Amino acid sequence: MRTIDAQCEMVPTLLVTGGDVVTMDPHRRVLNDTTIAVSGGRIAALGPAGDLRRRYPGAEELDATGAVVIPGLIDAHQHTTVDPLVRSLIPDDIPSQSAIYDWAVPLHQHADGDDDELAATVTAVDCLTRGVTTVLEPGTVAHPLRAAAGLRRAGIRGRVGGWGWDTPGLPFSAPAGEVLAAQRETVTALRAADPDGLVTGWVTLVGHALVSDELFGGALQLAGELDTTVTWHLSPGPDDPGSYRLRYGRSPVEHLARIGALGPRLLLGHAVWLENAELEALLHTGTAIAACPGAYLRLGQGVTRAGRYAEFIHRGGRLALGCDSHNAGDAPDVLRAAALLAGLEHDRGTEPPLRAADALALATVDGAEAIGAGGEIGSIRPGLAADLVVLDTTRPGWIPRATDPAALARQIVWGGVSDTVRDVVVGGRVVVRDRRPLLVDLTELRQEAAARQGALLSRAGLPTSATVPSPI
Ligand SMILES: [Zn+2]
Questions:
Q1: What pLDDT score was predicted for residue 448?
Q2: Residue 326 CA, ligand 1 centroid: distance in Å
């Protein structure tokens, strides 16, 4: 994986002073009244404020006295284009195929580069103000370089890819060779366009039953060649298992295993519906999963009947959390996803139950490992990128504040504290301060998003809220 060593020569040294630091380090320590020194975009040291002020004279300071500081959260599956501009407009009582072909497809066909860039910025500020500092775009993007620019504008860390599928006759489809060439071009162009390495590229296929064996295998090979990761969608609901059984006489993951298209570089989006042999194949090959529980509930994908994430995790499976899209899960709120996943798995009765501390690890250190960024982000310890979130414990949701580390983890995961995010640091740079994104003017963003929403709906031939008012 590409590191960010070259990053942020211009980022000033920063001291985040006096917070109670939830490190998510190997010992899961919580360090009270601790200052974090940040230099060159990375965490340089943890210790008493006085000592670090002497070591880093003249450093800028962010006062976190009395606050809780957690590692930046990781959203491993978040669509950043189109949906953010039409958030909450797709009805929640229609079949998923209708949501795709009556809404998503025409909207994507009519979105231009300016739409994609703005939508990505909307996603980024939405993520950052909820404590999400890394967002992985799983690739349903017509203009990936513009989406990357939109993320970069807000100062978030990200990975972006373009459309990738080769079923003939479908919109955005192309032969496998062309898809792979475009993927290579995107990853290469993003490396050149982003010298600080904050927003990089990865190989992204749409997946499902819409990709040939040649393309699945080629994508994994390309990811190895480019030293990056790869993702595609699989089995969020029962449709993919049904299609693969019909076409190949075996389950989707068994098929991927047979063609050699699994492995530690692959992050499968969803994998909700898994048979025993599929679970075994994922564990055996080290293939990771991005789970988006909010989307499965919003879309009625059957996660309460079919999901088996706790079992996967307890057996050493690599899993990260995602929030999917602004019309599936709707809010890029990783702490909410953590609570939903823990609750769903607890309700399933899997032993041992997934604790809040486990779910917090999925949102941070374990999620980082699952996306191939372990040792780079996900915990607060020297040497890692300085992605930090300061939670304002003066807010009512923190009264009274838990002090015992296990109770603190429960309060962070179950207590709905993502609305208490006060300050956010990404790669050593303060990008949200006192709840306000520093790099983006929200008033301008709001006005432009409203205008682009109306124009996009009109071009796609879909009703606008102005033309079809509907009662709640
Ligand atoms: Zn998706």
A1: 97
A2: 11
Distance 454 CA to ligand 1 centre (A): 24
Domain 14-72+379-437: give its CATH architecture: Roll (2.30)
- Distance in Å, CA 210 to ligand 1 centroid: 14
What separation in Å is there between the alpha carbon of 434 and the centre of ligand 1? 31
pLDDT at 97: 80
- Quick one: pLDDT band at residue 106, thresholds 50, 70, 90? very high
Query: Environment class of residue 102 by beta-carbon count within 10 Å: exposed (0-12), middle (13-18) or buried (19+)?
Result: middle
Contact 431, 424 (CB under 8 A): yes
pLDDT, tens digit (0-9, with 9 covering 90-100), for 295-346 = 999 988 999 999 899 999 999 999 999 999 999 989 999 999 999 999 999 9
- pTM beyond 0.90: the answer is yes
Task: State the Cα–Cα distance between residues 298 and 295, nearest whole angstrom.
Answer: 5
CATH number for 73-370: choose from 3.65.10.10, 3.20.20.140, 1.10.10.10, 3.40.50.620: 3.20.20.140
Measuring CA to CA, which residue among 140, 150, 98 is closest to residue 325?
Answer: 140
